[in-house]
Amino acid sequence: MNAIEQMDWLAGHWRRLSAHVETGRLPQALLIAGREGLGKGLLAEAFAKRLLCRHPGDYACGQCPSCHLFEAHTHPDFLRVEPEEPGKIIPVDAIRGLIANLALKPQYSGHRVVVITPAHQMNAASANGLLKTLEEPDEHTLLLLLTDSPENLPATILSRCQRLDIAIPDRVQALSWLQGKNQGDAEVLLTLAGGAPLKALQLAEAGIIEKRGEFFAAWYDLLRQVEEPAKVAEAWSKFPGETLTEWMVSWTMDLIRLRSAPHRSLIDNADLLESLQAAARKLNLRSLFAYLDQLQAARRMLSGQVNRQLVLEELLIRWLRLARSPT
Ligand SMILES: [Zn+2]
Predict the structure, then answer these.
(1) How many angstroms is it from 17 CA to the middle of ligand 1?
(2) Helices (H) and strands (E) in the chain, counts
(3) What CATH number corresponds to the domain at position 98?
(4) Which residue, of 111, 144, 167, is where some domain finishes?
C-alpha cells in the first residue's frame, strides 16, 4: 500500500481526482482546503505524480523516467510556488516567474502541474497576477492551490477554483493509522493535534508528549506550591506561547469536567488523569471558569507583541492563587 492508500480519509478524494482524469475533465484549478496535518500536500503531490507518469495505473507507476524525475524533485513540468520562509508572503515576483514558465509548453509529459502553497499567503498583487492565469485556461496545466484558511483567499480566486475540502477524519480511522506508526500514545497525540493525524505524527517526532509532561509537572507543582511562578515563567517563555496556552486551556477544561462530574473518565488528557483528579479536588468550579477566561485572553495577547514572560508569569500567579481560594 502506498502512503495515500494508507490514509483512509483521503480515499474518497483520490477517487474523485482520478475520475477527473479518466473522464478527461480535469479542472483548470483545484483548491485543496483543510487544516494542517490532514495530508493536503501529500495528496497534491501524489496526484501531480500520477498525472505526469508515463504509465499510470490507479497511482503513478514509480518506475518510468517521469516518476524518477518527480522523485528526484527535478521534474520540469512540476512547479511549486511557496514563500521563501514559512509564514512569509508569496511575493508577486514568484507569480511572475511562474507565469513566464507557463508561457512555455510542457517539456516532458502532456501535462504540467503547479502547486501553490499556502495559497492564502499570496498578497493582493500576487493573487491579482495569478488571476490572469486562471482566466486564460491552458489545457495542459493544472493549478493546485493548497490552504488551511480558504477564508483568507480573495473571492475572485475562490470562484475560479474547483474546491476539495479535506475534513478531520473519523477518530477510529485516524487512530488506526497513527498506531501503525508506533510513535507513543496515539490517543493523546491525536487529541493534542486536534484530530489531524499527520500533525499528531509530527508532534510525536518533535518529542512533544515528553515536553508537555514537563510543563504539566511544573504547572502541577505550582499548585502544590513547591515551584516559583517567576522561575517557571522564565523557562516557559522560550517555548511557543500559543502551544502553552492551548495546553493550559485543555488542562483547565479537563479540571472543569472532573470537578463537575468526578467519576467521568472522558477527558482530553487521559494520560494525566491521576494528577488532574488530585488537582480538581483542590479547586472550585467558579474560579476554574474564571481562569479559563484569563487563559483565552492571554492566548490572544500572546499572538501579538507583548512581553511573553510577564504574561505567562501573571497567568501562573493567578493559577497559584486558585489553590488558595476556598473550594
Ligand atoms: Zn510513472
Answers:
(1) 17
(2) 16, 5
(3) 3.40.50.300
(4) 167
User: What gap in Å lies between CA 268 and CA 188, rounded to an integer?
Assistant: 7
DSSP label at 118?
T
Helix (H, G, I), strand (E, B) or coil at 112: strand
At 186, list the grid cell. 496515539
114 strand-pairing partners: 79, 143
Distance 279 CA to ligand 1 centre (A): 58
Find out whether 133 and 114 touch, Cβ atoms under 8 Å.
no
Residues 254-269 have pLDDT tens digits of 999 999 887 766 888 9
- Near ion ligand 1, which residues have CB within 5 Å? 53, 60-61, 64, 67
Residue type, 95: I
As a dihedral over the C-alpha atoms of residue 208, residue 210, residue 212, residue 218, rounded to 10 degrees, the angle is -150
Please answer whether residues 69 and 76 qualify as being in contact, where contact means their C-beta atoms are separated by less than 8 angstroms: yes
pTM above 0.85, yes or no: no
* Strand-pair partners of 115: 80, 144
Residue 159 and residue 221 in one domain:
no
Task: Find, among 61, 47, 55, 52, the residue nearest to 19 by Cα.
Answer: 47
Distance (angstroms) between ligand 1 centre and the Cα of 281 equals 61
Q: pLDDT tens-digit profile of 53-78?
A: 999 999 999 999 999 999 999 999 99
